[in-house]
Amino acid sequence: MLMSTVVVIVLFSFNGILQAAKCPNIATVSGFNANRYAGVWYEVYRNTILFELGAKCVNATYTVQDDGSIGVFNQAINSFGYYTSINGTAKVKNSAQPGSLVVNFNSPTNILMNKVFSRYGLPKHIVLNNGPQLVSNLFKNFCDKLGIKQNLTANYHPQSNMTERVNRTLKPLIAIYAQQHHSSWDIEIQKLAFAIRTAINETTGETPAFLMFGRDPRDPLDLLIGETIEESSSMVVNHESIQEYKNKLINNFRSAFNVIREHSEIEKIRQKEKYDQHTTQKQHKEGDLVWIANLKPQIGENCMVGKLQPHYEGPYRLIK
Predict the structure, then answer these.
(1) Residue 295: what pLDDT?
(2) Phi first, then psi: what are they for 96, rounded to 5°?
(3) Counting Cβ atoms within 10 Å, is residue 76 exposed (0-12), middle (13-18) or buried (19+)?
(4) How far is C-alpha 134 from the geometric centre of its chain's CA atoms?
(5) pTM of the model
(6) Superfamily classification of domain 2-106
(7) pLDDT digits over 95-140, tens only?
(8) Model confidence pLDDT, tens digit, residues 265-284
(9) Domain segments of the chain as ranges
(10) Which residues have C-beta within 8 Å of that of residue 297, sequence separation ≥ 6?
């Protein structure tokens, strides 16, 4: 049976090769109105597509932009039970056929280059989780060419992922805001992020904005309590004064970073002591009943996913 299947596939393949064919010229919709197609569209049928294998609730959201292009947001629940998504932009390829659109999706390399590196410069190293798009050969080659060292976080250890730590702070802010504005919190999320960037970090003793730019941004609180405005000097600025300011700024940065590094080490020790108060040194012996962490819980042959899944299974008895 297996041999017959293989033979059929091979014959079908040769048949496709021998018969030359051309893609048909498909007539697009005349008088195409993008606003009529804006909104959320759910997939009801699909051909076999590799990146959609095992996915469900596949949908696309189309948004008409001010420049006439169409924002594309594709989303699905993957085989592991988590949402996965990608953003793109659709533009008209030929004005004579406004219904023929070309879609370009944002890859991690384009996002980093256009949104981060072009604004803040190239980093020496970057901390990444183990997402497939970040451990791909394409992304690795991208980092190698730019001289960026990749540091991957440990699997199943969110404490090593700084993004998860930021999310731990951001989620309560979203929950508080959503109580009054449950339908618009995603629009204001950048304002919540600004609040985090301008708040003093317990570990470093400084705001993230100061560590990044060497100054604290001006915010609405400055308008309420008042701020000191220094009078501008009327003297002509020459090259020597600019170089002197630059050297002084560099020295101030170095001094600030040294103080922050010492403060951070002290805070790490304090946080460790606080964490250790809630832990005990557990020693087991043969015959003890234990629970085992369930990294991929399943019932029979069916895997379970989601936040409500059991985190431990057992009990099991130690035999050695």
Answers:
(1) 67
(2) -75, -20
(3) buried
(4) 10
(5) 0.51
(6) Calycin beta-barrel core domain (2.40.128.20)
(7) 778 788 888 877 778 888 888 888 888 999 888 887 777 888 888 8
(8) 888 888 888 888 877 777 88
(9) 2-106, 121-158, 284-320
(10) 303, 304, 309, 310, 311, 313
